[in-house]
């Protein structure tokens, strides 16, 4: 059994380019949050009326799916680092499966809004709702592919990069949830 060396405490785990990507994505989402919150100040009653149309139980279920999948991805990384390839694969594929569940619920969320006649043009709140959650869903899909891709090799370096991306996806959802669904 081969155990991979742990990163030095003064270095970032994974690849520098992945951290550049993560930082740039956080900045893009942060700009979207800032614009949404700024627009909310111009029409508080309109934003409140739009927000109550969202399905909060679906958002809560999606939160549980992503947080659990992040935990599974972290377990997969720990397994990869300890040389337990089979356990790594199972954890990463389970995390990817929960990510698929997230996308299914998000599609249900969009369909329910469409059934109410709500689209991007309905109100500025919905413009940013669809833009931010849609962009996030695209990142979930990319993360699923990354998790599946590195699961086959179960090499610690690849798993580290994929789980860093997946945790960014989790973090963005945890930031999106209060801004879009709860404020």
Overview of the structural elements:
There is one protein chain. The chain has helices spanning 16-42, 44-51, 56-81, 85-115, 124-153, 156-182. The protein is built from six helices and no strands. 31% of the residues are buried. It has a single domain (16-182), classed as Four Helix Bundle (Hemerythrin (Met), subunit A) (Up-down Bundle), CATH 1.20.120. It starts with 15 loop residues before the first helix and ends with a helix. The protein has 183 residues and is an all-alpha fold. It is elongated.
Keywords:
mainly alpha; 0% strand; 183 residues; Four Helix Bundle (Hemerythrin (Met), subunit A); 6 helices
Low-confidence stretches: none
CATH architecture: Up-down Bundle
Helix-strand makeup class: mainly alpha
Radius of gyration over C-alpha positions, nearest whole angstrom: 18 Å
CATH class, named Mainly Alpha
Query: Using DSSP, what is the number of strands?
Result: 0
Number of individual domains: 1
Précis, in short:
InterPro entries: Cyt_c/ubiquinol_Oxase_su3, Cyt_c_oxidase-like_su3, Cyt_c_oxidase_su3-like_sf, Cyt_c_oxidase_su3_a-hlx. With 183 residues, this protein is mostly helical.
Write the layout of secondary structure elements.
Elements: H1 16-42, H2 44-51, H3 56-81, H4 85-115, H5 124-153, H6 156-182
Helix pairs in contact: 1-5, 1-6, 3-4, 3-6, 4-5, 5-6
Organism: Gemmobacter lanyuensis
Transmembrane segments: 16-39, 59-78, 84-105, 125-152, 164-182
InterPro entries: Cyt_c/ubiquinol_Oxase_su3, Cyt_c_oxidase-like_su3, Cyt_c_oxidase_su3-like_sf, Cyt_c_oxidase_su3_a-hlx
């Amino acid at each position: 059994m081969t155990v991979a060396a742990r990163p030095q405490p003064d270095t970032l785990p994974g690849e520098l380019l992945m951290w550049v990507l993560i930082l740039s994505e956080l900045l893009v989402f942060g700009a979207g949050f800032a614009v949404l919150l700024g627009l909310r100040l111009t029409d508080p009653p309109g934003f409140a009326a739009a927000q109550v149309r969202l399905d909060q139980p679906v958002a809560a279920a999606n939160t549980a799916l992503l947080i659990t999948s992040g935990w599974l991805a972290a377990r997969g990384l720990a397994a990869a680092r300890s040389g337990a390839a089979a356990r790594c694969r199972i954890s990463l594929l389970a995390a990817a499966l929960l990510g698929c569940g997230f996308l299914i619920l998000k599609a249900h969320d969009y369909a329910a809004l469409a059934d109410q006649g709500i689209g991007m043009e309905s109100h500025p709140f919905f413009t940013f709702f669809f833009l931010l959650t849609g962009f996030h869903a695209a990142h979930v899909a990319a993360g699923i592919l990354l998790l599946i891709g590195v699961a086959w090799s179960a090499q610690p370096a690849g798993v580290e990069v994929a789980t860093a991306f997946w945790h960014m996806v989790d973090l963005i959802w945890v930031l999106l949830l209060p801004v879009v669904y709860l404020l």
